[in-house]
Prior knowledge:
Elements: E1 2-3, E2 14-15, H1 21-41, E3 64-68, E4 74-76, E5 79-81, H2 86-94, E6 102-106, H3 112-124, E7 130-132
Parallel strand pairs: 3-6, 6-7
Antiparallel strand pairs: 1-2, 3-4, 4-5
Amino acid sequence: MGVSLKDTGDDLAELAEINVTPFIDVILVLLIIFMVAAPLSTVDVSVDLPTSNAQPQPRPDQPIFLTVKSDLTLALGDDPVGRDILQATLDGKTASDRTQRIFLRADPSVAYGELISVMNLLRGAGSLKVALVGLEAAP
């Protein structure tokens, strides 16, 4: 509520105008606080993931490992294989059984794009059952 100090007589007259400057200052301060606090509240999302009770799958007697080495060469089992003859070599190992699972493992320094290109080679060779191999962490 504002008060006018003009000489209008003995009593002070009230003004019907609202001073909005402090209100705007408060709103701007709150806006800045929310702009700073909002990104900080979404940085870390904690999720309690459920545990799996699935039993590990039995390992086949003769697994077929395709390895991508750090120099991006391929090895089927222990034998080096070229990308151009991968399909023929896989057909020889699996007796042309395209339903047999191929275990793909790669050196940690291999880029993700290279791993995907090898998976595309396997898909082009007709092998749609590809399993990625990794090490289990110690408990």
